[in-house]
């Protein structure tokens, strides 16, 4: 079974698209999925898994659709802050052409949570030959991830923004491979004594790779002030790297 799904897993499966030639790439962990859509999605997904590789195609990222979801709103605010605009102006991204962004995900099988418990419920132990989701994800490290390392090396975006600091090692392997990343640096971004978050960053080839907390949750980038502060610092890092 694994040999049959490998072309699908080691391709553009599970990603959102946009323009791979864009200066900015955004990477999450996996698609979010509403529980009511799960049954239909998993039936279709198992068919797609056997249909072969998902091709990489250039398109315009749909900013207007993106900001109809909380994740897209928060990213739009961060994007504006990076471009030295106030986060409150996030709605203006709907006027962008869509050539500015490429959206990816680490893993190709979506659940409405990142936990293991749904793996057996929907039969992915049989569909993938892996008894747990964690084992499948480990397999992706050495099989799926090199596809994206090569993709980053081919297009060399200026900035790659990754969401989820608990997945730091995953993002580094995904975009840089075993030997392709420079020293990983971290710093605390603080807006007051109670609001502190960690930013991780490095270089992968010619790309600035930043890993930020999730956009929601108690320890996430859950305020406009944090999003503005992170965007400002990322802009500074970009300028420093360009000067260097």
Question: In a nutshell, what does this entry contain?
Answer:
This protein is α/β, with parallel strands linked by helices and 244 residues long. 40% of the residues lie in helices and 17% in strands.
Q: What key phrases describe this protein's structure?
A:
alpha/beta, 244 residues, 7-stranded mixed β-sheet, 10 helices
Note the beta-strand portion.
15-25%
SSE pattern, N- to C-terminal: HEEHHHEHHHHEHEEEH
Widest β-sheet, arrangement of strands: 1-3-2-4-7-6-5
What's the helical proportion of residues? Answer: 25-40%
Quote the distance from N terminus to C terminus.
48 Å
Averaged pLDDT, please? Answer: 92
Runs in which pLDDT lies below 50 for 5 or more consecutive residues are none
DSSP, total strands: 7
The total count of helices amounts to: 10
What Rg, in angstroms, do the CA atoms define? Answer: 18 Å
Outline the biggest β-sheet: 7 strands, mixed
Backbone structural class: alpha/beta
The gross shape turns out to be globular
Question: What is the topology?
Answer:
Layout: H1 2-9, E1 17-18, E2 24-28, H2 38-49, H3 63-66, H4 70-82, E3 101-105, H5 118-121, H6 124-128, H7 133-143, H8 145-155, E4 159-163, H9 168-176, E5 185-192, E6 195-204, E7 207-212, H10 224-243
Parallel strand pairs: 2-3, 2-4, 4-7
Antiparallel strand pairs: 1-3, 5-6, 6-7
